[in-house]
Amino acid sequence: MYRVIGTVKSRAFRVLWMLEELGQPYELVPAGPRTDEARQYNPLGKIPALVDGDAVLTDSVAIMTYLADKHGAVTAPAGTPARARQDAMTCWLIDEMDAPLWLNAKHTFVLPEKLRVSGFAPTLHKEFSRNADTFAGMLEQAGGDFIMGDQITLPDILAVHCFGWAFGAQFPALPESVKAYSKRLRARPQFRAAQDH
Prior knowledge:
This protein has 197 residues and is of the alpha+beta class. 57% of the residues lie in helices and 9% in strands.
């Protein structure tokens, strides 16, 4: 059984949701960032971590990729053009959606107060909104219920988690089509099961 180190209200949620989509059993080991518990699995104290037998893996996207590849689901097969397109979408989401949210979090509550820089939240909000509009266009072009077409894949999990994070961080409202997409995916039983931990 997999062990996930982290909390539901962190990037560990992405891993929990992926495991639910894969139908794999797991145990959640509650640990906040920079705690002694987290440092047992990652010297940096970052969460999440995944324990699979003797292996300890870190970084939510790396863990999701590993799990999807290992179980051959929620992903395009490695070494295919479809996977290259999926990886490009994943990288875009990390760069353009996750990064502004993380930068905002660092300068709102993560960094010690003396290291925080104030005043650039409006720039991050504007950048995120522009990227959300771009995502809306990509979603329309995909033409299905999911960003990569007719099946849920890793980028959907990453995107919806970012959209929820943005809502909680009081970023600007999402385009209506993106709101509907997010609401539809959040209604999945796998999402709700991951949320219930």
